[in-house]
Give the backbone structure.
Amino acid sequence: MELDHIGIAVEDIETALRLYCDGLGLELDRVFELADDRMKIAVVGSDRVQIELIEPLGEDTPVGKFLKKRGGGIHHICFSVVRLEEAIRELEGKGFSLIAPPRRGARGERVAFFHPRSTMGVLIELSEEEGE
C-alpha cells in the first residue's frame, strides 16, 4: 500500500490553483468535472506527490456538505493497492468500515472508501493500481 494522493476540499478551484501552483510551485496536470458526483477536480503535484483539489458543484453534494460543516481542507487520503477486494477484506478484518461497494473513481480506476468513524476521523480511499 502506497500513498496515491491527498484530496482537498476547496470552495473555488481557481483560487486554490493560485495557492498550490503559483504559490507553492506545483504543476497543474488537469482539470475535469465528474458529472455523476457533481464535483470539479484539479490535479496538481510534483514527481513525488499528487493533490486533488475538489470543488463541489452544489451545496447538497457530499463535498458541499463537508465544506459547510468543516470548511476547506483535507477531505481524504488515498492509498493505491494491487488487489482492491483483498485489501478491503483485510481492512474490514481490522475494524475498518467500508462506506459502499467499490466503484469507478475519477481516473476510471476501481476505488473504495472507508468511513472516518473507523479511521480516526480521516476518510480513507483505496485505489486499485491500473492493470489489475
